[in-house]
Amino acid sequence: MKERIVIIDGNSLINRAYYAMQRHMITKEGIYTQGIYGFINMLTKIQEDYSPSHITVAFDLKGPTFRHLEYDQYKAGRRAMPMELAMEMPILKDVLKAMNIHTMELEGFEADDLIGTVSRMAEENGMEPLVVTGDKDALQLASYVTKIIITKKGVTDFEIYDHDKMLERYSLTPAQFIDLKGLMGDSSDNIPGIPGVGEKTGISLLTQFGSIENMLEHTEEIKKDNLRKKVEEGQQLALMSKRLATINRFVPIEIDFSELKFTEPNYKELISLYTKLEFKSFLKKIKTEDSEEVSDIAISETIEKTMITDEGGMEKLSSLKDGKAFIKVFSDFSHVKAPTVDYLFIGTKEKVYLLNVEAIGVESVIKVLNQLSLSFWGHDIKDDIYALMYYGLENFKVIFDTAIAEYVLETTRSNYDLKAMMLEKFQITIPSEKEYLTGKGQMDMFSDPGADYLEYGLILETAVSKVIESQKEALAEQGLENIFFNVEIPLIEVMASLEVEGICVNKEMLGEFGESLRAEIQVLEMQIHELAGESFNINSPLQLGNILFEKLMLPAGKKTQKGYSTGADILEKIKDKHPIVPAVMTYRNLTKLNSTYVEGLKPLIGRDGKIRAHFQQTVAATGRLSCTEPNLQNIPVRSELGRQLRQAFTAGEGRLLIGADYSQIELRILAHLSQDETLIEAFNNGEDIHLMTASRVLGVPADKITPGDRSKAKAVNFGVIYGMSGFGLSEELNITRKEAEAYIGEYFKKHVKVKEYMDQQIAKCKESGYSETIMGRKRFIHEINASQYVVRQLGERLAMNTPIQGSAADIIKLAMIKVYKALKEEFPESKLILQVHDELIIDAQKEDKEKIKELLVKNMEEAMELSVKLSAEPGEGATWYDLK
């Protein structure tokens, strides 16, 4: 079997990767990485699909080549490589070096020439060359042995050419493809060709004559007069263009194919680079088992280990009393049914215990834990706390969580996996729980996994201890101790409690609501079909697009290969063009409401009639909490039907829901941060801020302002927070861009300090690379210094918005902690059960409702002291709907 060599056009692939990536990737140190990231994905796919024995990557060098010496306009006018991509090139070469992948470049020659030479030499050495490139110039290298892999769309879509494929696609041999380039030219390389001759004509001429040289000897045989004239006038251009397009396959380089053999990477160097480039997904996948460069975690042999399998053995835990303990619960963390706690690993750096909770009894374990009054630390321990609180754990506190600490240090990570963190920070590999237990054979249902859980708990405790040391230092250096210890850490217990309590759901009411929705959906479906004049699948974008834009001839967006876009933004623009459009928009809203929030909620209701949503701290870069399974924060509140859905969420039997939400909290924070006297005074005097803005901007007395004027002012007030442009405001208010820009301009004239503050935030972020909240929470905004205008604009909007939105997140978290503690002390039978955006909800005992309402409002309004009063508006009722 032939050895297979992959020869990669480095410049071509990183260019393709850079432009194929849908998002801009920048590290917190300002290193651009999207080209490298895409390149590695391409490289990985090539290795997986073709299993090469040898590999090399060819690069272009700056400076003229022999082609420039012949034709000084060669590649003239080609768009310069973006600065961001140019920064990535040397780093890519470092990555390839760490991968032990051979690279080559040579002054005076292009990568194509090196590729052509190595592919020829490889064939002569009995190897099978695969050339990977995005440049079709390389098709001339195809043969019965050498295959050319052309990258298409994205980073993993390829098309393969060999000798036969060339004949099938172009009706030409690979050698004739050079002649085709000579005839038609190549605009990307500024090769002229014969003016007026394209691919179709070029192929026709070569089918007739075989080559440019033979054609020029027989021009009289060209039947079309105008074509014959073009060829005769352009013969020198054709010959020169053919020379420019010809890849030199005899470049003076020496290749020792043994140096191109595919070998294991230098893992230590590769991990260091991936860490610097923040390639978390690659770090997780990296194979380190066979590498001596990366060490396994070292477990101290002096740790005292004890397994407890009966209630009597629980006395041994007394040594932990009032101390700090690492905790890990091995459990089924179901939120629909009661969690099943199997084992509990708990201990210090000197002695650890594994409790067989199933054998001892969870109630007995909880009773002892409450007597011990422990301070817990660990990694991502909210689920552990939830499982224990579910069964009655009360007397404890949380003091450190490495997942939360990493989130505070780096809010834009995609995940906070301990395995990845150990690899990044210390080049130490640890297994995941699943990997470890599977490796230990715990698929055997009859074996006792206790010893393995004890051993794995030690691995986790050792790893977390090591991470904590580096995180404490980083938190102190970056001034993040306040936000971590006073906000995020106490919040863990609050969130676990929210999940334990859950919220009651009236299944009957939910079912009735679903039936009414389905009835409305059926009526709408009939109306839409009637308006369309035929039946079709409304849920099919392709069929809907054909109805709207071909049959009804409504103004359409751009048509793609998949058909017309029928997204919400497109329909919004044409909703007044035909009654079918608003009907479709309503149909979509109702079907989503039914599928997501009626049918979707049913399987999440537990036996006790409650839904226990998951609350997460480490998702939103702004600091906001995330809610999943279900996402109660996304229940629509603008539509009456969406609001009606909240009627299904009820207080416990014989109890009452009490809620309060902050009034215009982000605008109040803007007033505080900007120190705009007019805004501060208006809020502190209880004025209608939108009415005031309309009056000031329009120069009209407040009593003359119309509801429409107030709506415009409201859009401007909130638009300012998010850095909305004139275009964005014009879209929002359906006015001209000029009107919108005038409105924004007038707003900033009247609120100069707001404009100054926004400009300052952009300038500070450009200098430091991050924005921060009132409490010092940092968000690194790598886009702020991008050379690309669109990316830089995004960075500037984030720089303006992050301090406001992030401070609002900090305030609501502080309020949650204060309300939770106050209820625990004063009204322990009443429970905080839900946080949605700026709203907190308590399931309360009716007899205490007035005092609890007062407690809720007081703690929310006193969560943080600002230049303006925080205002929380309370409500009460039997259902969530009643709190509006």
Outline of the structure:
This protein has 884 residues and is of the alpha/beta class.
What does this structure look like?
It contains 35 helices and 27 strands. The radius of gyration is 34 Å and the shape is globular. The N and C termini lie far apart (74 Å).
For the largest beta sheet, what order do the strands appear in spatially? 3-2-1-4-5-6
Number of DSSP E strands: 27
Question: Which class of secondary structure composition applies to the elements?
Answer: alpha/beta
Estimated share of beta-strand residues: 5-15%
Distance between the termini: 74 Å
Helix content: 40-55%
Which blocks of ≥5 consecutive residues have pLDDT under 50? 288-293
Mean pLDDT reading: 88
Which overall shape is indicated by the principal axes computed on the Cα atoms? Answer: globular
Please identify the oligomeric state: single chain
Sheet with the most strands? 6 strands, mixed
Please give the radius of gyration in angstroms.
34 Å
Q: Number of helical runs?
A: 35
